[in-house]
Amino acid sequence: MCGIIGYIGHKDILSVLISGLSKLEYRGYDSSGLCVQNSGNLTIIRKCGKIAELSAALSQSSLSGKVGIAHTRWATHGEPSEKNAHPHSDCTKSIALVHNGIIENYHSLKELLEKEGHVIETEVDSEVLVHLIEKFYEGDLEEAVMNALSYTEGTFGIAVMHKDEQRIVAARRGSPLVVGIGENEMFIASDVSAILNHTKRVIYLNDNEIATITNTHCVTKNLGGEILTKKVDEVQWTIDAIEKDGFEHFMLKEIFEQPQSIANTLRGRVVDGKVKLSLNVDVKNVKRIIITACGTSWHSALIGKHFIENLTRIPVEVDYASEFRYRKPIIYPGDIMVAISQSGETADTLAAIKEAKAQGATTLGIVNVVGSTIAREVDGGIYLHAGPEMGVASTKAFTGQLVALLLLALYIKQQKGEKLDNELLEDLQNLPTLVKQTLESSKKIIDLAEDFKDSKDFLYLGRGINFPVALEGALKLKEISYIHAEGYPAAEMKHGPIALVDSHMPVVFIAPHDSTYEKIISNMQEIKARKGKIIAVSDKGAEIQKLADIVFKVPSVRDELSPIINILPLQLLSYYVANVKGLDVDKPRNLAKSVTVE
Ligand code: AGP
Asked: Which residues form the domain of 44?
């Protein structure tokens, strides 16, 4: 939800901090700031708006130093403003802090601190934390941070510095933090994208761990002060995986990356007619599966239900994580919870996992970000290996999740001793080629964007395994073009929504030639009769051409693969409509890539 970077070393500290922030901007971008220690003082610069504002403010600056921290914000407490931007400092401007998360006992801490004479200047919860550290500071920053955190409830990923100390103290609970190990330099960051062009050697912090870094050393402890030995990982992502590769936006790059990202999800997992997953969890006796997620990941969960029930006959329940966690859910012995999360940091999904674990469920994660909190919270899981998804609107992660869910369904079937359908496995292996073909043939969608950019409402309709594709297509359009769009089961139209249809209403049908095709055709006729403008995604030509105003032709594939193929033109439709409207496709208003607040 916010992005943090800290640096100790010999490089030009402003360029390290600013370039690191720009790689983290997708995590939140309503304000930003930095603090640099120089000649025994802390200099703090903060700006409202995107990081370009901060960069411009510093373009003539001669500010230099060896220790610094920086932050890009997605507001939770206190509106976006320069005053509320991080870093925050104590009354004597001796300590500076950047924070990602929410301090839940902020009010009681504020009262306590103000009674002791601290002047809290903003409504930002993070500010009380730096004053609490000041309260405990007696010459050792690490000790003061530990003491302060022992009184802190809620989530945090923090980096803290003191004007008199040549080190940075970082700690996490519920918000991600990674330490970067360089040559005579060290980094702290919310994720590896901020430091990848400096080092690939990283240490992932777990919850309730603290790291103190100098330019040559990193000491990690738990919040009780015990020293921990942590593994140094080598990051596999290359820096250009972060950059846009010549595309105008990350989202477009990631849409066209899907043949490769799907190939990466499949890599090494279908060998000689067998599905190979190292789940670390025994699935052969599972009696019930609960899949929980948010947003786009919830849409892939709905499709995962079809995969698992059709292939294994094991009952599957799908739940919004935010609903599951508060509903006093019933968990039976033998239940497995599957949590789906691209970022691996979504607070509601993490809380749902903890609730299920507390009641004895085994948990699996389907996650993209390696080393993320959810990935380390679950008992086992499947990494997408789709590479970083920088666009706020999820695209390649969605199709990667569907492939991972299909692999999971096949794996469970295999572990139950049942024979797998070799044709399905072959089609799955051929999927990247089909995805590439579909994307290539969908380029004509660019010309259509102009016709739809002024639409006020869209309906997306699908049936069966493609009903969630209607939901996902609608979400894509509304979250980046700000056009209202709703996804519905096609049969539901006659129960009310058809009242909305008139000649101004584009209605998108996902209409593969499957067992529901005839029904979808009659739904199209109902819309046609009311002069609705019909856009159809289909592998069928003739009948559809007569009824639909626009047809996005896709290859014929088996039912299990149709959602992955059918979503592709809808991803492009939403992208091109938003782009022709001149909107910031990668950073849509009010949204952030990782929702680590509840
Ligand atoms: C997707 O386009 C949305 N930006 C959003 O719904 C996202 O899918 C949701 O916040 C869940 O994120 P996660 O997969 O990282 O948990």
From this structure: 3-235
